[in-house]
Write a structure and sequence with these properties.
By secondary structure, the chain is of the alpha/beta class. It is about 30% helix and about 20% strand. The relative contact order is 0.13. The mean pLDDT is about 85.
């Protein structure tokens, strides 16, 4: 069963440095802004678990001890698990893949919508993931996403002071109205900071030393290959919308 795709080098998926990315193929959701719709097809990947593990191990370069000394090094800093939706993949396989990455001295990142809290807990409890990128959609079933974020936050406070939690919402003007975004913000603040403010950024965070933050990412005209053909006049954010977005960020 071929379930994974692979990118050995990316500069856009990790919070620092470079990453190799494992894409789990398959997702039961249908976000209109999805710009990797081909990754939603189950078992459409080019590789199975064994082949992916081999690729991860190949990131480790063992130099010739006579020519280069004995220090082993990796071609990238991070291994990112992305999708599709990783929580739709078998959790035992993901745990195995993640732990091979950790044994290879890679820092681990995980992209998800957090829609399957049971599976999410299983994976977190059996691995040492350092970077989480959570897609907080505001579209449907936010309850599970918020439960996953809350579970992560408890771990963040109790065990990991080196953990990054990046919550992101891809915003479409026709759906993410001012009221909707304020409602989403209120829910996040309630579970994270007992109603105190959460750091929010439009597009990208302006500092890399934040460990927990929320970004609002307007859909981009560059996203040509989306699942639903988007109307950028209706859904893109314009200059004049920045004022209300700034009010959310405050
Ligand atoms: S954006 Fe992610 S969660 Fe949404 S449909 Fe695409 S793969 Fe699934």
């Amino acid at each position: 069963m071929k379930s994974y795709n692979w990118n050995p080098f990316s500069l856009v998926d990790s919070p620092t440095g470079s990453a190799a990315v494992v894409y789990t193929c398959g997702c039961h959701l249908s976000c209109p802004y999805c710009f990797n719709p081909e990754l939603r097809q189950f078992n459409s990947g080019n590789f199975d678990k064994k082949q992916i593990i081999k690729k991860i191990k190949s990131l480790q370069i063992v130099p010739d001890p006579i020519v280069n000394g004995s220090e082993i090094f990796n071609t990238v800093e991070w291994l990112i698990i992305s999708g599709g939706e990783p929580l739709d993949a078998p959790s035992n396989e993901l745990v195995e893949i993640i732990n091979v990455g950790a044994e290879t001295d890679l820092r681990i990142g995980f992209f998800t919508s957090g829609y399957n809290i049971h599976q999410f807990k299983q994976i977190i409890d059996q691995t040492d993931i350092e970077y989480f990128h959570i897609d907080y959609k505001g579209l449907e079933n936010d309850k599970e996403t918020l439960e996953s974020i809350e579970y992560l936050y408890e771990r963040f406070c109790s065990r990991y002071n080196h953990m990054y939690i990046h919550i992101n919402t891809t915003i479409m003007r026709s759906f993410h109205t001012e009221e909707k975004l304020f409602e989403m913000k209120k829910k996040l603040m309630k579970i994270l900071y007992k109603n105190k403010n959460i750091p929010i950024f439009i597009n990208k965070p302006d500092t890399s030393d934040r460990l927990l933050f929320w970004t609002l990412t307007p859909i981009s005209i560059n996203h040509q290959n989306t699942l639903t053909k988007l109307n950028y006049i209706k859904d893109g954010f314009l200059e004049e919308d920045l004022d209300f977005l700034k009010a959310i960020v405050k």
